[in-house]
User: Which sequence fits this backbone?
C-alpha cells in the first residue's frame, strides 16, 4: 500500500486522475470501478480535463460500486431532484467524455429482482475480465461503498440497509439543500461486496478533510475489522494507493 499525502483537495484529485489517466492510456479497454460521493468529484473534473486534452475513453468499461434501491436515473428531473448515483455519474463524468453508454454499469436501483440483479452484476464484472482499478472513498463510519459496519469482508454484491450515520451524512451532503426530508431518503442500497472489491487488480482510496482523519487512521493502521470495512485495504496484496490531503492524513502517525 502506498500512501500519498497531498497539500490540498485539488492536488489529491489531480494525483488520482493522473493514475487513472495513465491506466486508460496504457490499456485503452481497461475496466474502471467508480465511486460516488463528494470525495471523487474533483478527480472526475481532472479526468474530464484529461479527456479534453485527448485521453480516449471510448473503449473503457466502468462498474460503479453502488446505487440506492428504489431509484434510478431520471433525466426528466433536475439533477438536484434526481438523487440516483447513475445520475451523479452522468452529470459528474460520463456526459463530459466519450465513454459509451453501453460500457457503463451502475447497479440498477429499480430492479424488480435485486437478488438476481446482484448475481448478474457479479457475472458482468467477471465477464468484462475483472476490474483493473477500483476507485473508492471512505464513509464516516468507515464503509467502502455501502458495506456498512458488520458487513463480512468476503461479502459479494447484495442489498444492504444503510446505517443512521450514513443516512445523516447523505442527507447533509445531498438531500437537505434539495428540500427532501430525511424520512424520504432511500434506506437501502445495492452495493458491491468487500470480497468483490478485493478482487480488483488495483485500488485507489481517496479521503480529504479533517472529518475523515480518524476513520482513515483506523482503516489503515487499526485492526482489520468488519466494524470498519475499509480496513480490508490491509488485506489487499496488489497495487493500492491511498491518496489523501493533509487533513485526512493528520491522525495517521498517532494510531
Ligand atoms: P463522501 O462519501 O465522498 O461523500 O464523503 C464517501 C463514501 O461514503 O464512500
Assistant:
Amino acid at each position: 500500500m502506498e500512501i500519498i499525502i497531498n497539500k490540498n483537495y485539488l492536488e489529491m484529485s489531480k494525483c488520482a486522475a493522473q493514475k487513472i489517466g495513465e491506466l486508460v492510456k496504457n490499456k485503452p479497454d481497461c475496466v474502471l470501478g467508480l465511486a460516488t460521493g463528494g470525495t471523487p468529484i474533483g478527480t472526475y473534473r481532472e479526468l474530464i480535463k484529461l479527456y479534453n486534452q485527448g485521453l480516449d475513453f471510448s473503449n473503457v468499461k466502468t462498474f460503479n460500486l453502488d446505487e440506492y434501491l428504489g431509484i434510478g436515473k431520471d433525466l426528466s428531473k433536475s439533477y438536484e431532484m434526481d438523487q440516483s448515483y447513475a445520475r451523479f455519474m452522468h452529470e459528474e463524468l460520463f456526459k463530459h467524455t466519450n465513454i459509451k453508454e453501453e460500457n457503463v454499469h451502475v447497479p440498477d436501483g429499480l430492479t424488480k429482482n435485486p437478488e438476481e440483479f446482484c448475481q448478474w452484476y457479479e457475472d458482468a464484472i467477471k465477464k468484462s475480465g475483472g476490474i483493473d482499478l477500483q476507485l473508492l472513498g471512505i464513509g464516516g463510519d468507515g464503509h467502502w461503498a455501502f458495506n456498512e459496519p458488520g458487513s463480512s469482508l468476503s461479502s459479494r454484491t447484495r442489498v444492504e440497509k444503510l446505517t443512521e450515520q450514513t443516512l445523516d451524512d447523505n442527507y447533509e451532503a445531498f438531500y437537505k439543500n434539495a428540500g427532501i426530508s430525511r424520512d424520504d431518503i432511500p434506506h437501502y442500497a445495492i452495493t458491491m461486496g468487500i470480497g468483490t472489491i478485493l478482487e480488483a487488480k488495483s485500488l485507489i482510496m481517496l479521503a480529504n478533510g479533517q472529518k475523515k482523519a480518524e476513520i482513515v487512521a483506523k482503516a489503515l493502521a487499526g485492526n482489520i475489522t468488519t466494524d470498519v470495512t475499509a480496513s480490508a485495504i490491509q488485506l489487499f496484496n496488489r497495487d493500492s494507493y491511498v491518496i489523501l490531503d493533509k487533513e485526512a492524513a493528520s491522525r495517521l502517525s498517532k494510531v
Q: What stands out?
A: Strands lie at 2-6, 31-34, 61-64, 66-68, 104-105, 133-136, 158-161, 188-191, 202-207, 239-245. The mean pLDDT is 96. The chain has seven helices and ten strands.
